[in-house]
Write a structure and sequence with these properties.
268 residues, alpha+beta, D-amino Acid Aminotransferase, Chain A, domain 1, D-amino Acid Aminotransferase, Chain A, domain 2, 2 domains, four-stranded antiparallel beta sheet, globular
């Protein structure tokens, strides 16, 4: 390859139109966490976007591809993997093919899941509302909403911010699902409020059920946040981060500490 030849061509549809979906997968203690869940979610997104899914696009084959890459990059025992699937080039807004290609990347991480020592400071991002439609729960390459929310974090000197949907309900943060604790019960926005169908969200709901902790999928408002005992955020890479402050409200981290311990037990 010439030094001036791009690895991804300019005609790539992910580059041109955001015509792609992706997964971020965690290698923790040399274990690929929840890979089947990631592949299932990815295939669902590919179906929604009318991608042609090859028969060989299976969890087993993807796992082997990832392992080969990790060995080549010497990224172990902890790493972040991104698997991006994009529609092949051709056409303008209307594609000329639904066949796909994919790209796998890895990045070395230093440790297993570790809970943040200082609680995050968050607020609500209201400049742009997340629309409610069949794409709302998918992890697509169309990420400008999250980019703008991230820029708002910088300007407001926040650690994260909470996004609202077109009906004004809190649905997620820039890169995480949201959980709220009140009187020993846990609440999280339902998928029909437009949040990403998070893999770690699914694991926390499952762990809560396993340990007889009540979980309710319920719309979250700023009033609920202001009266909560605890708020924490979840994603596949960081696991859990607890929120220390929302406006003038301060929170504890009891449940976040409990769940991070249980998550790390799953990596052994």
């Amino acid at each position: 390859m010439s030094r001036y030849e791009p690895l991804i061509p300019f005609s790539n549809r992910s580059f041109r139109y955001g015509d792609a979906v992706f997964e971020t997968i965690r290698l923790c203690n040399n274990k690929l966490l929840f890979l089947k869940d990631h592949v299932t979610r990815l295939k669902l997104a590919m179906t929604v976007l009318r991608f042609n899914i090859p028969a060989e696009f299976t969890s087993e084959n993807i796992q082997q591809q990832i392992i080969t890459l990790l060995k080549h990059n010497i990224h172990a025992p902890n790493a972040r993997i991104r698997l991006t699937v994009f529609r092949n080039e051709g056409g303008f807004y209307t594609p000329s093919t639904n066949d796909i290609s994919f790209l796998i990347e890895s990045e070395l991480l230093n440790q297993e899941f570790v809970l943040n020592g200082t609680g995050l400071t968050v607020d609500i991002f209201t400049d742009i509302k997340k629309p409610l439609n069949k794409l709302s729960n998918l992890k697509t390459a169309n990420a400008l909403l999250y980019v703008m929310a991230g820029l708002s974090n910088q300007s407001m000197k926040l650690d994260d911010c909470l996004l609202v949907n077109s009906e004004g309900k809190i649905c997620e943060s820039v890169s995480s699902n949201v959980f709220v604790v009140k009187d020993g019960a846990i609440y999280t926005p339902p998928l029909n409020d437009g949040c990403i169908a998070g893999i770690m969200r699914k694991q926390i709901i499952s762990l809560a059920s396993q340990y007889k902790i009540l979980v309710f999928e319920k719309s979250i408002s700023d009033y609920i946040l202001s009266n909560a005992d605890e708020v924490f955020l979840t994603n596949s890479i960081q696991g859990i981060q607890w929120v220390g402050r929302f406006k003038q409200k301060f929170y504890t981290s009891k449940f976040a500490t409990f769940f991070i311990e249980k998550l790390n037990q799953l990596t052994l």
